[in-house]
Design a protein that fits this description.
Spore Coat Polysaccharide Biosynthesis Protein SpsA, Chain A; about 240 residues; 9 strands; three-stranded parallel beta sheet; globular; single chain; alpha/beta
Length: about 240
């Protein structure tokens, strides 16, 4: 399990506690689940907390979440790679569900999906506007997983992107899977819980407008879109 993290001392312990539970519930044995925190140049106690919880730490200086994911993957030793954000909490059955999904041989990659740690009219409406794209594309978020061989053939996460690197990564795997008649899967029974901190910070309706304008600016004013992305995803203290 690779966890990209920048200044996540506050929420990382919560995730690691849920990962400990999921490891203990894994029928393949807890020792087979490796935890790696890709420390993306944090200035707080992120790395120390990771070590205290028995995680391996992959220092990644390039301030980009794609670089952090790739750095953690390089340190990992397993055949299967999983990725989860540091502000999430995983389901106790996560590793069993992923194991079963891959064992069927029909998945090139997948994601467990998420639910929010709190709900409001704005968050529900935002969720509802995004779900059709998830259903149509087969791409989701949460704990993202694939086999190492497919990760490497797809080229990992694109380090030329400040955001949407996860979308492009799954698209690349989807294209790869067509060659071997495998697809993206969204297995049930192990949704992660995603933090609502962006909604707490920017308001429960903000995503409909801020991210929408950022996509428009990506086409007409890419430098402005880059500034918005850095402020939104990369300037947490």
């Amino acid at each position: 399990m690779v966890i990209p993290a920048y200044n996540e001392a506050e929420l990382l312990p919560r995730l690691l506690d849920t990962l400990t539970t999921a490891r203990q519930r894994y029928t393949g044995g807890a020792a087979r689940v490796e935890l790696i925190v890709a420390d993306n140049a944090s200035t707080d106690a992120t790395a120390a907390i990771a070590q205290q919880h028995g995680c391996r730490v992959a220092p990644v200086e390039k301030r980009m979440i794609a670089a952090a994911r790739n750095g953690g993957a390089r340190l990992a030793q397993g055949e299967v790679l999983c990725f989860v954000d540091a502000d999430m909490q995983v389901h106790p059955e996560t590793f069993n569900v992923i194991d079963r999904a891959l064992a069927r041989g029909k998945a090139v990659a997948g994601a467990t999906g998420v639910t929010s740690e709190r709900w409001s009219p704005g968050i529900v409406f935002t969720w509802a506007t995004m779900m059709p794209a998830v259903w149509l594309s087969g791409m989701d978020t949460g704990v993202v997983f694939c086999r190492r061989a497919d990760f490497e053939e797809a080229g990992g996460y694109g380090e030329d992107r400040l955001y949407a690197e996860d979308v492009m990564f799954l698209l690349a795997l989807k294209r790869l899977g067509r060659k071997t008649r495998r697809g993206l899967v969204r297995p049930r029974g192990a949704k992660a819980i995603v933090s609502a901190r962006k909604f707490d910070q920017h308001g429960d309706w903000h995503m409909l407008f801020k991210l929408g304008w950022m996509c428009v600016n990506q086409l007409i004013a890419p430098r402005k879109a880059e500034r918005t992305a850095r402020a939104y995803w990369y300037q947490r203290h």
